[in-house]
Amino acid sequence: MILDQFKLNGRVAIVTGARTGLGQGMACGLAEAGADIVAVDLNNLGDTQKMIEGLGRGFIGIEANLANIKNTEDIVNRAVATFGKVDILVNNAGIIRRCDAIDFTEKDWDEVMHINLKTVFFCSQAVARQFIRQKTGGKIVNIASLLSFQGGIRIPS
After folding, report:
1. Could you state, in order of their start, the residue ranges of all structural domains in the chain?
2. What does the CA dihedral 95, 42, 70, 105 come to, rounded to 10 degrees?
3. pTM surpassing 0.70?
């Protein structure tokens, strides 16, 4: 069967923004394919944990503020300490601020850019370093909103 080519048995995936929505769905999809999941979000990951464990997969829920770049290494270290490796990173966490462009603050701009760009780079860097240590390579998937291609009068960043 063609789906056998997509099995992820024995793989470990880190998914950021995994508490709800697309991140939760991607974490569940990866688990259905056989991967153990390291779910990262700012808030409680209990619902995601129930779903992943209900599929019979291993799960770590890490509540972390990705605005603090120091957390990226900790996330990778915790994944490796529990599962022995990392094979996949899904950079899904993202934020948005809605405000008229003429009133948009530097603080809002910086927060959006930090989470949506800087964090993606440094999470990818931390996982890539682990891929090199493992000598196995891996996959990094970056998720972006359609708003990353165009702004708007109320979504300038």
Report:
1. 2-145
2. 30
3. yes
